[in-house]
């Protein structure tokens, strides 16, 4: 009966609460696989735990007619080391967040305005798609391909939260067609014809 209490008191004495409450990112030091190094506690202020960047709409005047405004550790130092982050999605009419993955974390999306068709593909190639309206929430498991499309007749806004302060992002179309990956390799690995690959590289700015 007394042993668990003893162990608990020992842990509390070894790990005082103030020593591990947070690890505000020191943006003057490089980011690494474990995140940013901690800012000196003496230099931490309330401003480190507040971020104002999600109030303004993102610029959707681009190819995908959408914008992602992140509040990851690089923008919001207070989330560093806490296993959480957030971002804003603005999707114009006809806009899309293309197929992509977040290798570092799972995602929860909540629709604030408009209508969004969202879905993901499991590792067993099962497809899960749903049309979401204001107030609806959908989760996307870590590492799986997923997308969001404005399926309504007005601009859509959503907020997405992640289980990591830097969840990472890889957009499938850009990974295949927006770089110097040789056309021959793309055609072989995707079964697309060379003309289609060249066309997509031209649209997305790829070479070779």
Distance linking N and C termini: 70 Å
Low-confidence segments: 10-18
Strand order of the largest sheet: 1-2-9-4-7
- Order of helix and strand elements from N to C terminus: HEEEEEEEEEEHHH
Q: Please outline the major beta sheet.
A: 5 strands, antiparallel
Helix amount = 10-25%
CATH architecture of one domain: Sandwich
Mean pLDDT score, rounded? 90
Q: Please give the radius of gyration in angstroms.
A: 21 Å
CATH topology of one domain: Jelly Rolls
Assembly type of the shown chains?
A: single chain
Number of strands: 10
Q: What is the tally of helical segments?
A: 4
What fraction strand? Answer: 25-35%
Overall geometry: globular
Q: Just give the CATH class of one domain.
A: Mainly Beta
What is the CATH superfamily classification of one domain?
Jelly Rolls
**Protein structure class:** alpha+beta
Give me some keywords for this one.
single chain, 208 residues, alpha+beta, Jelly Rolls, five-stranded antiparallel β-sheet, 10 strands, 18% helix
What does this structure look like?
With 208 residues, the protein is α+β, with helices and mostly antiparallel strands. Among the domains are: 58-167, Jelly Rolls (Sandwich), CATH 2.60.120.10; 175-204, no CATH class. The protein has four helices and ten strands, in the order H-E-E-E-E-E-E-E-E-E-E-H-H-H. The strands form two sheets. Strands 1-2-9-4-7 form a five-stranded antiparallel beta sheet, with no helix packed on it. A hairpin with a 5-residue loop joins strand 5 (116-121) and strand 6. The protein is globular and about 60 Å long. Mean pLDDT is 90; it is low at 10-18.
């Amino acid at each position: 009966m007394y042993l668990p209490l003893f162990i608990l008191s020992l842990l509390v004495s070894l790990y005082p609460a103030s020593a591990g409450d947070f690890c505000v990112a020191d943006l003057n030091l490089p980011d690494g696989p474990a995140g940013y190094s901690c800012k000196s506690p003496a230099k931490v202020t309330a401003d480190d735990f507040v971020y104002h960047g999600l109030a303004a709409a993102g610029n959707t005047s681009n190819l995908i007619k959408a914008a992602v405004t992140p509040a990851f550790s690089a923008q919001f130092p207070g989330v560093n080391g806490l296993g959480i982050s957030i971002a804003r999605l603005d999707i114009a009419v006809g806009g899309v967040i293309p197929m992509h993955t977040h290798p570092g974390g799972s995602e929860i999306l909540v629709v604030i305005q408009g209508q969004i068709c969202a879905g993901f593909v499991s590792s067993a190639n099962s497809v899960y798609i749903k049309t979401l309206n204001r107030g609806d929430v959908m989760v996307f498991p870590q590492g799986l391909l997923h997308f969001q499309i404005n399926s309504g007749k007005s601009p859509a806004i959503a907020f997405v939260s992640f289980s990591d302060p830097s969840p990472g992002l890889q957009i499938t179309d850009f990974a295949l067609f927006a770089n110097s990956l040789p056309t021959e390799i793309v055609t072989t690995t995707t079964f697309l014809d060379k003309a289609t690959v060249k066309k997509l590289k031209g649209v997305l700015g790829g070479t070779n």
